[in-house]
Fold:
Amino acid sequence: MKIISQLSLFDDTFEENLGDLFRLQTILAALPDEKLIQKLQKIRGKGRNEWSVTALWNSFVASFIFDHDSVASLLRELKRNSQLRIICGFEPHFYKSKRDIFDCIVKRMEQQDGEQASDYDMPEEGKERMPEKYETVSFDDFVKYSKSMFEYWTEDDFASSFRKMLTIEQFRSKEMQSLYQQYLVAGPAFYVKDLFESMGITDAKDKAVRFYAILYFYYSLYDGTDDNEKVKEEFVSAINCMVQEFK
Structure:
C-alpha cells in the first residue's frame, strides 16, 4: 500500500522532523517493495532461513535511518533496541504487513488523543455519542485544555511527528487527506463548535473557526522557528485575548 512517497521520507527536512523509530515505521509502511521481497525470497531458495527475508530487508532500511555504516554497528543497535527489533520483524510480536504498521500508528494516535482529553476531563468522542459530557464542560476548562493541546501537538514526540507527517502527506492519498482533516482541520473545528454550542456561546461555528485557527497558525510558527518559547508565549497571549472577547 502506497501511503507516503519515498522521496519525501528520505528528505533531510523530513528526517529532522520525525523520530527515527517513527520515521522507520512510516517508511516501511510506504515502500513499494513487495516485488523486491518476493525476488529476494526466490534468490534465497532453500538457503539459511533463521530470519525472514522481510525482517532482513527491514533492518537494511533501518541501517540508513539510524546512520549505521557497518553490519556490526547495525547488529549492536538491534541488540540494544527492542523496539527496533519488533519493527523490523525479529521479535515474535512483529508487524505482519505494511498495513499493520500504518494501522498501529493510527491506533496509537487515537489512544493518545483520547487519553489527552480524558486527562482534562473533556469529551473523548463526538457530541452525538456523549452529549451529556459536552454539557459539563466549562469555558475555563476548555481554555486550559486548548493550551495543553498546543503543547501536546508541538512538544510530544509522537503527536508532533504524526502531525508533521499528515501535513506533508495530505496531498498524496485520500486516506492521508482524511486523517489530516480528522485530526488537524475539520475534526477539531467541529469539536470546538459543539463545545461552544453546549456552553451557549452565540455564533458558535464562526467563533470555533476563529479559535481553532489560532492554534493551527501557531503550530506552523512553532515548526518554523528556533525560539519555541517565544511562540508559546505569543500563542497564550492570543488565546487570552480571544477569551476576553468571548466572555
Summary: Confidence is low (pLDDT under 50) at residues 1-17. Residues 18 and 161 are 5 Å apart (CA to CA).
